[in-house]
Predict the structure.
Amino acid sequence: MSIKKEDQLLDHEYDGIKEYDNLLPSWWLATFYGAIVFSFLYMGYYHFAGGPSLSDELQQDLAEIYTKRKSLEVKDNGPTEEALAAILADKSRVDQGKVIYVGKCASCHGNLGEGLIGPNLTDNYWLHGDASLMSILLVVADGVAEKGMPPWKGMMKKDEVQSVVVYVKSLKGTNPSNPKAPQGEEVKN
Amino acid sequence: MNSTVNKYDFYDDEIVKKFVIATVCWGLIAFLVGLVVALQLADWRFNFGLPWITFGRLRPLHTNAAIFAFAGNAIFAGIYHSSQRLLKARLSSDLLSNLHFWGWQLIIVSAALTLPFGYTTSKEYAELEWPIDIAITIVWVIFAVNFFLTIKNRKEQHIYVAIWFYIATIITVAVLHIVNSIAIPVTFLKSYPVYAGVQDALVQWWYGHNAVAFVLTTPFLGLMYYYIPKAVNRPVYSYRLSIIHFWSLVFIYIWAGPHHLLHTSLPNWAQSLGMVFSLMLWAPSWGGMINGLLTLRGAWDKIRTDPVVKFLIAAVTFYGMATFEGPLLSIKSVNSLAHYTDWIIGHVHAGALGWNGFLTFGMLYYLVPKLWKTNLYSVKLATTHFWIGLLGIILYIMAMWASGITQGLMWQAMDDSGNLLYPDFVETVIRLVPLYYVRFVGGLLFLLGFLIQIFNLTATVLQANKEKVKDPVAKGSRIPFKDVISESSHRSLEGLPAVFSTLVVIAVLVASAFSLIPALFTPTKMSAKSIIRPYSPLELVGRDVYIREGCYLCHSQQIRTMSSEVLRYGPASTMEESIFDHPFQWGSKRTGPDLARIGKKYPDLWHYRHMMDPREVTPKSLMPAYAWLAKDKISFDLIPKKLRIMQQLGVPYSEYEIDNSIETAQMQAATIAKELHEHGAPSGLEKTEMVALIAYLQSLGQMSIKPLEVK
């Protein structure tokens, strides 16, 4: 740092504005040069020396997630008709199912399950499956793409899906006013 | 002129006064509209069900008013005032000055008369339709001619650093505006841009980023270089720093546009270039801040006493903050959290309110007493304005940081079983509503401060002496050419503005050419047509409705290469998928979810009910209702022309398809309307824009001819 250089006025002025000719601050120069050096290193690593691309990184992330999901699947063989029936007997789970139903399902199936965009859930007629708890679970979890029923397994936790399923089952025979006309096959049981 | 007094012996301050008044008037409107849109985000009911004040129509009005009306007029006022004094010459032509002034105001009025009615190109900060774009070009050329002729008439051989920045502004804005606005007109107020998909994205953000650079940064740096040394009466800190940061800023800024497109389908290496150039931009930006702040050495006490200095120094500090945050946000990993969230909104407002707003306010407090030959009515009120405004900005930025980071984290949050923790998008939105009210309060304070300023400035003008005193042009002289070229290299350049300007042109064009080169490495429409089908005629009409309503302002159509995105929305977007999109609709903000793969996810009736009242299907949705779409009729007769223009742009429509496009559209509309009616919607929707929009939404992500390669 040269002291005599500090605050040397230049001989020009514009509308009374004068200028010093101070040296560039060294920390400022360091950040500038640093950024330039970093840029070369970054481009060199990622685009010339075989560094991973964004889609490589994405594939790796996804692979990890899918592996994790698989490992959990092995431990959990999924519910059975009997296990779901036990949940149906648990009032707190049915109530939890109702809360979720009102938030996520009622917009298409009606507040009382009377049917709207989607079919009536209170009658004896079923478009998909045999009205068993497991068949309802399958529709809720995987959806019915061609009918516009979204798969909910990614949008809800497993126990939430199960609660909704038992709540839907509990709607059968509730006879809401203004029901949607029956669709699908009649299931007698 | 009969008078013996030559008007060229005096500066033209009348035009400066006009631009000052326009700045204040449009500023008020820009801030008011900003408050309304802030309120609409907090509560959808503030859309009042009126099409022309719905968020999607008003937001472009807010941004255009803030950037081009408020900041634009401020720049013109400051440039015309300071340049005359720095060049020791009256503006070259009163006629050109007035054409510039009235032309610009007319453009703003036409923006205010078109944007709320849905006439928009959907290209951010370039939303105005083609006739207005032409008017902007003409007025800008008038401004340029007036400015460069004034330089020619100067009585000061060398041009000061402020003038360098003005030159860079005038040249670059012209290049940006013309290249980004090239479009083929469909009707008097509707056009399709010549670029599509990833190319359009690249051109648009080369423009968008550099509009920030050359409308909101370089001219304001020029103003800073004049008004700060004038206000504190101290020499500029470092001449050589101004040389280095000027040239590095002009050259490097241009490249950084792709940082708006990180993790998108833009080629990886182009994204990396955008990122590293943004990092290299940090130091050149801070060079300006250093020169502004350190000019105050030996006069720091003026911050306490002089409101002008308070505003100017706070502005430069916000500039430093925003230009540190910018490179930070362009680092890919930071960007993956911040992009599409309110953090970006906070970032731009740190710049807009703090840097542009406060610098303009400081300049107005300096200029108005000078122009009207009096003292400021009340220093105390100006100080009050400063503190209220500062509090407003801080509330605004903090709310948006909190909101953006909250939402970004919620989007990415995963549970132990490898599932999204918040799979329902609306959960991540309702969490932000309280912060939207904080933002509103911040904006309200900022506006309140400005109202105090308007009162203060009006009182200042009213107390002024009515007789007009003109400032005489300062004495000066030019030096011979041989003396100029014998000077040190940059000093010599400053004596030769024509050469200087040419070098700026070269720097800008070279950097632009390089930064647009990635567009050549994208798939062609010819190669894509075996993978992706073009929109059906009805879908194309629906797309125009989507553009008109400004849906892209809250919904993106670009699934990023991030696992949380793929889990939420499906496979990452490809370049081919938007290749027929004139203009692209990738968006820049997600107040609602991404729509790139929304097609066939819900039944048509779901969309119908969602448009009529979003809360019927998504109980806590923030989206305004679009019930008028069920009434507004489709202009079927325009369809063949739209397809024809798309065909000219390379979209593979056959002659047969164009000839039968009206019937095709009517048939598709009838099918959708019939099914809607069967499920309980009213009959007669087949002629309405509702079915067109539904057709478009159902096509998104469903255009692949071959099934997508899911890796």
About this structure: Strands of chain A lie at 9-14, 17-20, 125-126, 185-186. The mean pLDDT of chain A is 88. Chain A has six helices and four strands.
